[in-house]
Amino acid sequence: MKTFPLVSPLSSDQLYRTSELSGLAPEFKSTKNLTPINEIVGQERAQQAVEFAMSMKEKGYNIYAIGRNGLGKRTMVLRYLNRHEPDGHGHTLHDWCYVINFDEARTPKVLKLPSGTGMELKKDVEKLMVRLVKALPLAFDNEMYYSRAEKLKGLLAHKQESALLGLTKEAQESSISLTITPQGSYELVAMNGEEPYTEESFAQLSKKAQDKLETAITSLESKLRVIVRQFTVWEEEYSEKQLKHDEQVAQDVLAHLTDKLKDKYSSLPAVKSYLAGMHKDIIDNLDLFLEENEEQLALSYASLDKKMPRRYQINVLVNQDTEKMPILIEETPNYHSIFGYIENATFKGTIFSDFSLIRPGSLHKANGGVLMIDAIKVLEQPYVWDGLKRALRSRKLSLSSLEREVSLSGTISLDPEAIPLDIKIILLGDYQTYQLLQHYDPEFSELFRVTADFEDVMPRTQKSEAQYAQFISSIIHGNKMLHCDRSAIKRIIEFSSRQADDQNKLSLHSADIANLLRESNYCARSGKANMIRASHVEQALHNNELRVCRLKDNVMQSFVNGTTLISTQAHAIGQVNALSVIATSDHQFGVPNRITATTAFGEGKVFDIERKVALGGRLHSKGVMILSAYLASILGQTAKIPLTTHLTFEQSYGGVDGDSASMAELCAMVSAFSQQPIRQDIAITGSMNQFGEAQPIGGVNEKIEGFFDVCAIKGRKATQGVIIPKSNVQNLMLRKDIVEAVKKGKFNIWAIEHVTQAIELMTGIPSGMNVKGSRKSATYPDKSIFGMAQLRLEKLRKENPKVAK
């Protein structure tokens, strides 16, 4: 069996790793002399993933950036993309405009234009409309136009008069008069000389005379109807000639005003086609310019910006005025902000909508570039995730009314032509959200094939410390703070190592470092200093501790007034001081907990009271089972242990989880078995496996500091200290007062490899595990801890042979 050496306390040098900044030349006295770094340190893996995704043109190579908030995911991606050339990976930028579809107004058309052309075209068309609004009415308001119109009207009138004149003469020959009524209709009346017949005078005529007049009128009425129909034909011919005349006049004006515009955009087929369609539509809708219908004109000119017909506006949805690839961050990713929407306008009680009321979303603005969105915010908003997947699958951006889709109504609305979509989506989220999407959405892996996994920590070396100093310099330059001297840089690097819970690592949680720098800058400015020094960093850390330590103060007060029972001196059987961590959203601290174990005659079972009352978590229960297995392998190899053990955390009301107390629980049980007291001036933390080997745990710094503070409350002794697993030594970045106390021999920290070393330290008695021999027949010296326990168990077995069997 392996023999473990006696354990000596750790030296003060092992409790804290100071920063020497040996990777920086001595002439770099402050961040003023350091060149700010243009990238996030320690994230090479994530940066390579982003570079790869941006290089892939195929569909589906979008990015999910994994990491906790504050790691600098957004900053790193933005810095890389700002150095990224849009044409280097096939990203050609375009302007996108919506214009009216002259054939079907409900389906506006898309104009895809070279970047920077959209606004230019819009202004050119507006200038054309302003000139047409003035020029067309003038072309129809001059003597030449009136003369031609009067001539056409005169020809029509001459034809009509000639036709009526012949019919009038024929009527006169039959004593019949052709007259026009006040209502404008024609009437044939029988005449008695110069006066028309009355009913009495007509009745006095002979039957033959009456029949003659009636026959003549009937014949003339028939001829009159033919003439009236001919009038209609002639009027239509006149209208056509007048229309052709108007069109010719308008064509002359348009040709003069639009030829230059058509020549300017002759290289763009889409614009050329649109201008041709607009030319024809203006001819067909001259009344919009001639102000012949006031109501129609008012509606057609109802515009929020310019007095021109709405149908001829250019709705510039996206205008890429620079050659730089668009990079957008959508802070509020709801359906309308992502996919755009169609507004409704009201004019004199009339609600209407048209292509000019289409508004862009983030996908429109970032088309040809990158859109960054928070994954959780996307999933929180209804319909956004499905719409985003649909757009990425089809590589088209269809703008449909969300209200129509949700309500399933048949409300008339616009159906704009879809815009081709060429975009990279970067979702920023945590690992849990990534797992949920992978598990529940089979399309996720197809659409987001690249994972940019951001590191939490980076190795702490001379080179990385120098890089970290440059990173600190970049934050200071970016926020225009006071510069840090060399001592302040060292202290911030040490704080980063404490945040990483490892002497050999640096935290990459850039938000914590930035916040510390801001608060240190505030302290320095408040003290009228011209530079941030280590004292200002310490003051900032102290101020932050004061703001968040209310719960810690309350817990420590319970030790002061004796509400929480704890002993940091003397000895006790079956009682040990374990260590735990209490965490809030922005702070965590360590406190000691008393663990007690009692034994009674039984069948070797271990009753975990925490588990029985549902206050113990699964990991804690696992730890108890492991230590029970180890104890059985030590003391119950040949016969059942005739003791039942009850194990509990005293004064625990909020639940217990984790296996970091399993070594402490074993020490309490061994003490109860052997009836040997345990030192109360020592606390212990650490988990163990079934072979008794000490395993590392988390929060080791907070746990040590918590017991140190309680020892100060209860009374300090030089023998006090904490036992930790040896594998946790590298995690030590303790407070300066604890390091100083260890250095002066007023506090101790022991690092162990095996639980038997803890038992020996806490009882002052050898464990007895260094005896050679086979496991089945292993016996322990009578004066060892396990020997004493074994003797007691053997006595119980002899007294109760049935239980032993």
Automatic annotation (TrEMBL):
The active site is at 660, 703. It comes from the Bacteria. GO terms for molecular function: ATP binding; ATP-dependent peptidase activity; serine-type endopeptidase activity. One of its GO terms (biological process) is proteolysis. Keywords: ATP-binding, Hydrolase, Nucleotide-binding, Protease, Serine protease. InterPro entries: AAA_32, Lon-like_helical, Lon_proteolytic, Lon_Prtase, LonB_AAA-LID, P-loop_NTPase, Ribosomal_Su5_D2-typ_SF, Ribsml_uS5_D2-typ_fold_subgr. Residues 570-765 form the Lon proteolytic domain. Its EC number is 3.4.21.53. It catalyses: Hydrolysis of proteins in presence of ATP. PROSITE patterns: LON_PROTEOLYTIC (PS51786). Belongs to the peptidase S16 family. This is endopeptidase La. The lineage of its organism: Bacteria, Pseudomonadati, Pseudomonadota, Gammaproteobacteria, Alteromonadales.
